[in-house]
């Protein structure tokens, strides 16, 4: 089943008049930003992923730089992110990065 065919159980309303950030802008905010910048970048990333964009290269960035945060807002956004991010490869095997996520939450 492709992403376009999968049901979407999460709906987030956004204004369409803003230009979406590039992957490099998101990467920089997630790596080097403070908690407020990380939360805003994660929020934008979630909305863009729900709109069908794919960002497989940002998965490790989120695991390395965002998951260790103790900020409550970031933790809540991460729970939404883990719900919508693809967890399996094209052939149905679990992504190696998901094992890191499970270990981090243990």
From TrEMBL:
Transmembrane segments: none annotated. It comes from the Eukaryota. Pfam families: Adaptin_N. InterPro entries: ARM-like, ARM-type_fold, Clathrin/coatomer_adapt-like_N, COPB1. One of its GO terms (cellular component) is COPI vesicle coat. One of its GO terms (biological process) is endoplasmic reticulum to Golgi vesicle-mediated transport. Residues 23-105 form the Clathrin/coatomer adaptor adaptin-like N-terminal domain. PANTHER family: COATOMER SUBUNIT BETA. This is Clathrin/coatomer adaptor adaptin-like N-terminal domain-containing protein. It comes from Rotaria sordida. The lineage of its organism: Eukaryota, Metazoa, Spiralia, Gnathifera, Rotifera.
């Amino acid at each position: 089943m492709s992403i376009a065919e999968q049901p979407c159980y999460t709906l987030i309303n956004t204004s369409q008049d803003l230009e979406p950030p590039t992957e490099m802008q998101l990467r920089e905010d997630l790596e080097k930003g403070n908690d407020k910048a990380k939360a805003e970048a994660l929020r934008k990333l979630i909305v863009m992923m729900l709109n069908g964009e794919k960002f497989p290269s940002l998965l490790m960035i989120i695991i390395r730089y965002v998951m260790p945060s103790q900020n409550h807002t970031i933790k809540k956004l991460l729970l939404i992110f883990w719900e919508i991010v693809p967890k399996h490869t094209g052939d149905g095997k679990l992504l190696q990065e998901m094992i890191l996520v499970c270990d981090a939450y243990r």
